[in-house]
Amino acid sequence: MAWRKGAAEAGRRAAEMFTGLVEKVGLWNGAQRKAGMLRALVKHDAWNEPLAVGESIAVQGVCLTVVSATDGSFECDLLEETAGKTTLGRLRKGALVNLERALRAGDRIGGHIVLGHVDGMARLRRIRRRGADRVLEIECGRDIMVDIAPKGSVALDGISLTVVEPGQDGFAVHIIPHTWENTSLRDRVEGDLMNIEVDIMAKAARAAVERMFGGRQGITPETLRRAGFAV
Fold first, then answer.
1. Are 161 and 110 in contact (CB under 8 A)?
2. Tens digits of per-residue pLDDT, 103-157?
């Protein structure tokens, strides 16, 4: 009946969704080329429930599959595309990485729905203090900003955060001391690149509106008014 146990476990985590609430901070132990891919080793403190081969885990916000695991480490494979389009291909050995296991049915969603499908890389432009908190100023392209809304959700390096101060080429997020101290953010410095995934709900809303108006160019104040929007 081992296959049934495996199938049940796969079903519980089949959605491959995350919440953006970091469970552990691990250590990136480097990546070696193997069979046309990169095999990375991540070290970590032991989980209450050990990792299983085949389960999904978010590493710095990137959804990966565990290919081998021990109590204190796991390996995962990265495609060249993943390494090139995320910060994982640039991490130094010993870098801190955020870890979150995939959601199970019945789990609480404390952050927001994160898929682990990174949209690109953003740059940490500035870190400034505001009392005990920190404010991170993030720079990113307009292709990302089109889905960024004030008080909306965004995942940076797999951390669920709330957007403040949005502009044309970036936005800011507030970081409380607990988040700073218990994630890889404490390892970040100005100028660093960060993985960014915008809220899937924002993407879906934009796609629906674009279909309604025949593409992004067809969205104007006049067409919105005709459709019943208050603009």
1. no
2. 887 777 788 889 999 999 999 999 999 999 999 999 999 889 988 988 999 999 9
What is the domain class of 120-207 according to CATH? mainly beta
Q: How far apart are CA 136 and CA 56, in angstroms?
A: 29
Domain boundaries, the chain: 2-101, 120-207
DSSP structure string for 39-62: EEEEE-PPPSS---TT-EEEETTE
Please state, in angstroms and rounded to a whole number, the distance separating the CA atoms of residues 118 and 158. Answer: 9
In whole angstroms, what is the distance from residue 74 CA to residue 89 CA?
Answer: 17
> For residue 229, what pLDDT is reported?
58
* Pair of tokens at residue 113: 């729905």
Amino acid at 94: G
Say if CB 66 and CB 55 are below 8 A apart.
yes
Over its C-alpha atoms, the chain yields an Rg (Å, rounded) of: 19
- Each residue of 95-118: pLDDT tens digit? 999 999 998 877 777 888 899 999
The H or E element that residue 7 is part of is helix 2-12
Which of these CATH numbers, 2.40.30.20, 3.30.930.10, 3.30.9.10, 2.120.10.30, describes 2-101?
2.40.30.20
